[in-house]
Design a protein that fits this description.
Blueprint lengths: L2 E5 L3 H4 L10 E5 L4 E5 L1 H5 L8 H7 L4 E4 L2 H15 L6 E4 L3 E5 L1 H7 L2 H13 L6 E5 L2 H9 L9 H8 L11 H9 L5 H5 L3 H7 L2 H11 L16 E10 L6 H18 L1 E12 L5 E11 L2 H12 L8 E13 L12 H18 L6 E4 L9 E4 L18 E8 L4 E12 L7 E10 L4 E6 L5 E6 L2
Parallel strand pairs: 2-4
Antiparallel strand pairs: 1-6, 1-7, 2-3, 5-6, 8-11, 9-10, 9-11, 12-13, 14-18, 15-16, 16-17, 17-18
Helix pairs in contact: 13-14, 14-15
Length: 466
């Protein structure tokens, strides 16, 4: 069995909305006041890991300092595992900065180790993360090599063993008292340790050391717990710099939407609704819902809808974090009809337009007309906010004019009746009863009218035909 370990020593900092060209930034352990992570800009100015915070601040005037938060780093590691699940199946979390990948089941699918590693690298390239890696025939061995930044991918046992034997004893996952005892005995490397007789080691140390060596070499089985991704897409992004202007949210938001697009395409799904949470520095989070009635996968389309929604928000505090969730999805084929002769292009464009209008001016101000099962002409069309692509007519009726008056007006002038009558008697149950005889008529100017005569024998115009 071949394993691959990925170690992300700057995961929390690299996962934030920043790049190596921005201001120098570090993450500091608040207990020891020492630098535990730093970006490329800080490294170029001489800041190193384990440097005291005071020294780093004196060295760089505009240094950005953030406290280390292990829970946030674990959250980023879980999101990274979800992201890698699109290209590899078996992933174990080694919190807070490591991922262990079982390679062997993927080799046949990808066409070999080199092609598999290239696929993983390409998938990780969009995240702009710094990491070390190594492969070995046990998970523990792969982790030891990656922690030493060996950065070697191979399935040759000789090369793996040669690199593994150089491992210092203090890197082994052993209790501190065991490590100190081994060093006092003159054992400095793993090569020196495995050359010792197991019987002698068992007498001096407990069974934990023997078990660890057995799992390291593969002689004893090591049980791994594999990560299962969330059923719905969810990403959380910590902003390195607070955002006070909503126009600046588009760049980090596009990062999340690009991940969403790749996730949807890999899952053969479309998203119909997103939830975007703006975490404010000293105020309650602001949550907005974005709808795409036709179902959408492309990040640029979602960004347009999000920007329209954000334009209605007034910030009371700066934004420190973003969370993007998919709240409603469907299969990729569910948004269009499979009928070759159906006007699916018109349907998609109409729904896209409605989504843009709703995001730009608000859902409550966008309505559509639908036919309602009421023979009273003034009630046969009603406005609705729930949009359907092609509302079906619930009843059949005779010819109706293209222009219908909101309120009938008394008929004046000479007309010639051409067709009719059509009698409509209805509405007695709701207090708005009508008793009308409708006719199609033509006036002296050649205009076609829709007129009716009520129960009192009075004549009215209700509409004009085109």
């Amino acid at each position: 069995m071949l394993w691959l370990y990925l170690h992300f020593p700057h995961l929390l900092l690299d996962s934030q909305a920043t790049s190596s060209t921005e201001k120098p930034a570090v993450i500091v352990n608040t207990h020891s006041n020492r630098v535990v992570q730093c970006n490329e800009a800080a490294i170029r100015q001489g800041i190193t890991l384990d440097m005291r915070m005071a020294s780093a601040a004196l060295m760089v005037n505009d240094l950005v300092i953030h406290p280390y938060d292990e829970s946030n780093e674990i959250k980023q590691l879980e999101q990274l595992a979800d992201w890698l699940y699109l290209v590899t199946s078996d992933i174990c979390l080694h919190k807070p900065q490591g991922l262990l990948l079982r390679v062997t089941p993927m080799l046949t699918l990808c066409g070999g180790l080199s092609a598999y590693w290239q696929q993983v690298q390409q998938h990780l390239s969009s995240k702009n993360l710094r990491y070390h890696y190594a492969s070995a025939h046990t998970g523990i061995a792969a982790k030891l090599l990656a922690l030493q930044a060996v950065n070697c991918i191979t399935d040759r046992s000789s090369e793996i063993q040669k690199a593994l034997h150089k491992t210092p004893v203090h890197l082994l996952e052993l209790p501190q008292q065991h490590t100190e005892a081994l060093i006092r005995c003159g054992i400095q490397s793993l090569n020196q340790l495995i050359q010792q007789p197991l019987a002698a080691l068992a007498k001096r140390f407990d069974i934990q050391l023997i078990t660890y060596l057995g799992r390291l070499t593969g002689e004893l089985k090591h049980v791994h717990t594999f990560h299962l991704p969330k059923q719905r897409f969810e990403r959380h992004l910590i902003l390195l710099f607070d955002i006070e202007n909503l126009s600046l949210v588009s760049k980090p938001l596009l990062t999340l939407l690009n991940e969403l697009e790749k996730h949807l395409k890999a899952a053969c799904e479309v998203a119909y609704q997103l939830s975007l949470t703006l975490h404010l520095r000293d105020a309650e989070p602001e949550c907005i819902t974005i709808d795409a009635l036709q179902g959408e996968t492309q990040s640029n389309q979602w960004l347009t809808l999000c920007e329209f929604k954000l334009s209605h928000i007034t910030l009371v505090q700066p934004i420190s974090e973003l969370t993007l969730r998919v709240t409603r999805t469907g299969s990729h084929d569910s948004r269009v009809s499979t009928d070759l002769f159906n006007k699916q292009n018109d349907q998609t464009s109409a729904l896209a337009l409605i989504s843009v209008l709703a995001a730009k001016i608000g859902e409550g101000d966008v309505n559509h007309l639908s036919v309602y099962p009421d023979y009273r002409p003034e009630n046969s069309n009603q406005r609705h906010r729930q949009f359907t692509p092609y509302p079906k007519t619930p009843f059949t009726a005779d010819q109706r004019p293209s222009l219908l008056l909101q309120h009938p007006t008394p008929l004046q002038g000479d007309i010639t009746i051409k067709q009719g009558p059509e009698r409509i008697i209805t509405g007695w149950w709701d207090g708005h009863s009508v008793y009308r005889d409708y006719f199609i008529a033509k006036d002296k100017d050649g205009a076609w009218l829709w007129i009716f005569r009520d129960k009192q024998q009075q004549w009215f115009i209700h509409g004009w035909f085109s």
